[in-house]
Amino acid sequence: MFLWLGNKFNNLTLISLCLLYLLILAGGIVRCTGSGMGCPDWPKCFGQYIPPTAEAELPINYKKEFLEGRLKKNKKLISLFSFLGFEKLSKKISEDPNIKIEEDFNVFKTWTEYLNRLLGALVGVALFLTFLSSIFKNPFEKNIFILTFTSLFLVLVQAWVGSIVVSTNLLPGLITFHVVLALLIICIVITTYFNSTNINKYNIGKHPKFIYYLLIFSILLFLTQISLGTQVRESVDYLINYSKLIDRSNIIENLGLEFIIHRSYSLIVFIVHLLIVYLILKQPIKIKFLKNLLIVISFLVLLEIITGVAMAYFSIPEFLQPIHLFFAFLIFGLQFLLLLIFRANNFKRI
Fold this sequence. Notes:
Elements: H1 2-7, H2 9-32, H3 62-83, H4 87-95, H5 107-136, H6 142-167, H7 174-196, H8 210-242, H9 257-281, H10 288-313, H11 320-346
Helix pairs in contact: 2-5, 2-7, 2-11, 3-4, 5-6, 6-7, 7-8, 7-11, 8-9, 8-11, 9-10, 10-11
């Protein structure tokens, strides 16, 4: 049993990575459908492991009951953040009026959020099995063990952050942190897979080291772009949910400076990516995998820009939002894999 588990390490790592990306897509669907508060409590949903399918199955005073539970939890969070020195965050949580809003039962939103949570639990199980597999992997590798333990630990932290996002009624800022943490987990899982497969042994030959540093710069640019996009998304949510004077048809013109920066910033990201592609293809690299990887990344960057333009010109259609986010995470992950390949040829393994 344990020997079999150890032999399946690469498969389990790849499955975990695929499930992580499915979870990101599911999370995007939750956001675009406004289902983030479909379950007003955590980890249960309306106090049940399997949520109801009709409002009649809930107590008459269920809105007040779950609101009181959320407020009680937030008091503990405020105390914890104050103790840790996050006074501004504590104040923001305590003064946010949206936290005191009672949530109506909506069967579609409830089950959308519930299925998203189930997928999150499946990711946790997959990463736990990957961690166990790293223990029985032959030969045992300390760096692989540390990476799998870290990814498992961060997924548990991510689940806790998700509970805070729910208890604070999707507090702006926390969602951005939620996204950044997801990116970090993806980086660790990709690094784990890279170090345990033959990809880390690819010899791409001699090439200028500045390509490696340009890749780091590109990833930082894209990370900033994703963060800006998340903030734009938070602004869109606020305008749709709390500004009765604004409808979806004129929402773009009411967005702030972060949208203008996010829109213009994409051009810089695209130019830097084209420069990287040009510099890499200019080198005498014969590895087909690397060339295919560059083609896929370039295609995804183009799709990301097209979906972004479509969102700007068509009042941010809901169905495009999770696709736009999914492409962004795919590009980031593949760029990070490309960085690891170049790093392996310039420095020691991670």
